[in-house]
Design goal:
With 706 residues, the protein is an alpha/beta fold. Helix content is 59%, strand content 7%. The longest helix has 36 residues.
């Protein structure tokens, strides 16, 4: 089979398939799908999208990622971190579970896939190295805490606001703990007990999540856990609450109008720019900025009102589904209520959806996702582009780290660029089938490996089983409690909390420890804008690296008892010479540190005024740029004018090539460039002759065989 054909269709390498391989992949696919279905819905809950979008994301990307990736065991699908990052990227621009929110999520998926595909095609898989391990460590731990806290409202059954300060929302929610919905908390505790208990039963440990979900769903259906009804704002008896709801609805409608105006004005502005109508475009641009200011003001007002609306609790007269709504604690004396505390789930077109029990998944549309083009909106794309880039990099890092870990166990070669192409195509293809960003899943991949998957066909079967669920089993999901899904999420991300890794990183490198801690705190404080934590961490990591490379270690060397050259600052009693100064430079010579090198050389010469030779041990100099070369040209002249002859040893080929190309090699002289410091010192000794007979450093050299 030709290499070119495999490059475009890497899945052809699976063939021919034996019956044993197909059977193993079929069983692995079935096992993975049974566990994936409830987790996919849980992660969709985290993303702010309708829960069935998790199933869509576990369907199309899983198949495409397996066909065009390089790993044969990597499971592509929804994961907790990317789900949270999706919500963080889209929430500031739209209200969750609305058509606008869904459209932006699909556009985000397309952009993430496009970025990954371009990086793969251009063979830039190594770009992920700019996001260092300490950055990912800090981000993952902060994200795990944010994910866990974000599920508290679903476990306690109390409202949580959405603002630009996640921790403030959590703090405000905690003040409402006295209003905890006990049936919701009870369902969460039941789910936790089931999940932890089933792990202890070997026969059910792998399918424990599925079994726990089935039990919780049955309990929910039998006890009437879900209670829903409808009403209109006019049904609210309390003037204060009625006015609050009316103002919230008015603000919500006004936000939709302003959003439509921004979209229309932006479109007209782009058209004016294309036609060269400069003044018209400038006027429209001004109107867009004013509209955006208006939108920001409305968003602040909306969030304030939303917090008030979510705290409202109503009671109704018993036996009357259309009766008046009284605020809890303010109903007429002697009124018999229906025993439920109703709260407003949503308000659309003057109609309120009320919930009086625990929240359940509800109706899941049966059938496969339809093929539709993501809404290509330039303004929206620009707003979420930075988030798309961060998600693309973080998602790929999670995918490639898992792929490499599995590859080492099955002795398979992983091509990072091909994996980028596979992940990119998975997200691009998924965006046309209503999915949000997907990536390689740690849990799904581990299950694949343990279940005996031999090729990517296992994930194809996995996707097919998810499709069967969408076609035939969605009615069974109606009574699945959201509290159960919240518990699944919390247990899934608990493994991401690794405080011991911070200690290990700090011991290995103080600067890396600072990067990890900074990323952690910035991510936590900036939530829900998670991309800021990664960007700050990456910038700090690169900045610290540049700072270290600007001032590499410079060591003045002396002869140790075993004949090796070592730093005299570490070993003050080392033998040195009055005739020659030996120094080692531990870094490449480039524009940022040439001044540091020059200063170090001149200081060494000034500190050793009698020395006639300066030996630079260049074993650690891996690169020499034009700035470094120019500095050496000047430095050689300065040293010779001062009566000091520069000598170099251990220079690498790439450094010598630059010297030869620029004439620096001839300027220094072949007699002053040696392969090792031992050869250099012997040559210097011969040139100095009898004047160094009593020199301690050269006494060692004379006794050595180099």
């Amino acid at each position: 089979m030709s290499i070119r054909l495999l490059r475009f269709f890497p899945f052809l390498a699976w063939f021919p398939l034996s019956a044993l391989t197909v059977r193993a992949d079929l069983m692995a696919g079935m096992t993975g799908a049974l566990i994936l279905v409830p987790k996919a819905m849980a992660y969709a809950q985290l993303s702010g999208l309708p829960l069935y979008f998790g199933l869509y994301t576990a369907f199309v990307p899983a198949i495409v990622g397996a066909l065009w990736g390089s790993s044969r065991q990597l499971a592509t699908g929804p994961v907790a971190i990317v789900s949270l990052m999706t919500a963080a990227a889209v929430t500031p621009l739209a209200v969750s579970n609305t058509p606008e929110y869904i459209g932006l999520a699909l556009l985000l998926t397309f952009l993430v896939g496009l970025i990954q595909l371009l990086l793969g095609v251009l063979k830039l898989g190594t770009i992920v190295n700019f996001v260092s391990h300490p950055v990912i460590l800090g981000f993952m731990n902060a994200a795990a805490i944010i994910i866990g806290l974000s599920q508290l409202d679903l476990i306690l059954g109390i409202p949580k606001g959405r603002s630009d300060f996640f921790l403030k929302d959590i703090w405000e929610m905690l003040w409402l703990i006295p209003h905890t919905h006990l049936p919701t908390l009870g369902m969460a505790l039941l789910g936790l007990a089931l999940l932890l208990g089933l792990k202890r039963i070997p026969a059910l440990s792998k399918a424990g999540v599925l079994v726990a979900v089935v039990i919780a769903t049955l309990v929910s259906a039998l006890v009437g856990y879900d209670q829903r009804t409808g009403a209109v704002p006019g049904d609210i008896a309390s003037p204060r609450a009625r006015e609050l709801v009316a103002r919230y609805e008015e603000t919500n409608e006004r936000m939709k109008e302003v959003a439509a105006d921004i979209s229309d004005l932006s479109s007209r502005q782009r058209q004016a720019d294309k036609e060269g109508q400069v003044w018209v475009a400038a006027g429209l641009r001004h109107q867009v900025e004013l509209a955006k200011l208006d939108m920001r003001s409305l968003e602040r007002r909306h969030n304030e009102l939303l917090r008030g609306v979510r705290q409202l609790r109503f009671v109704r007269p018993a036996g009357r589904e259309d009766g008046p709504l009284y605020e809890q604690g303010a109903s007429p004396e002697g009124m018999v209520t229906d025993g439920r505390a109703w709260h407003i789930k949503s308000i659309e077109h003057g109609a309120m959806k009320l919930v009086g029990g625990g929240e359940v998944v509800g109706e899941v549309p049966a059938g496969l996702p339809s093929l539709q083009m993501p809404a290509m909106n330039l303004d929206a794309a620009l707003q979420i582009l930075s988030s798309a880039l961060i998600i693309a990099l973080v998602a790929f890092m999670e995918s490639i780290s898992m792929a490499k870990a599995m590859a080492s166990k099955v002795r398979q070669h992983i091509d990072p660029n091909q994996e980028l192409i596979g992940q990119g195509l998975a997200n691009i293809g998924g965006s046309f089938f209503q999915t949000y960003p997907a990536c390689g899943s740690f849990t799904g991949s581990a299950i694949n490996l343990q279940a005996g998957a031999r090729t990517g066909l296992a994930m194809v079967f996995n996707g097919i089983f998810v499709a069967v669920t969408l076609l035939f089993f969605t009615p069974w999901l109606f009574h699945l409690p959201k509290a159960m899904l919240a518990v699944i999420i919390i247990l899934a991300v608990a493994g991401l909390l690794t405080p011991h890794a911070f200690i290990h990183t700090w011991k290995a490198s103080r600067s890396d420890g600072v990067v990890a801690a900074t990323t952690f705190f910035v991510t936590l404080l900036a939530a829900p804008h998670l991309d800021r934590g990664v960007m700050v961490g990456a910038a700090l990591s690169i900045g610290l690296y540049l700072y270290r490379s600007m001032a590499p270690r410079v060591a003045i060397l002396g002869r140790y008892t075993d004949g090796t050259l070592r730093d005299v600052h570490v070993h003050p009693t080392l033998a040195t010479s009055d005739q020659v100064t030996v120094m080692r430079f531990d870094g490449s010579l480039y524009f940022a540190n040439v001044a540091h090198f020059e200063d170090a050389v001149l200081k060494a010469v000034a500190d050793h005024r009698e020395a006639r030779f300066l030996l630079v041990v260049g074993d650690a100099i891996n690169h020499l740029d034009s700035s470094g070369e120019e500095m050496l040209q000047s430095l050689v002249g300065q040293l010779r004018e001062a009566g000091v002859e520069p000598v170099f040893s251990g220079l690498k080929k790439q450094v010598l090539d630059v010297m030869r190309a620029t004439g620096l090699y001839e300027r220094i002289g072949d007699e002053n460039i040696f392969a090792t410091e031992c050869q250099a010192l012997k040559a210097i000794f011969r040139r100095l002759g009898e004047t160094v007979e009593d020199d301690a450093l050269f006494a060692h050299v004379k006794a050595m065989v180099c």
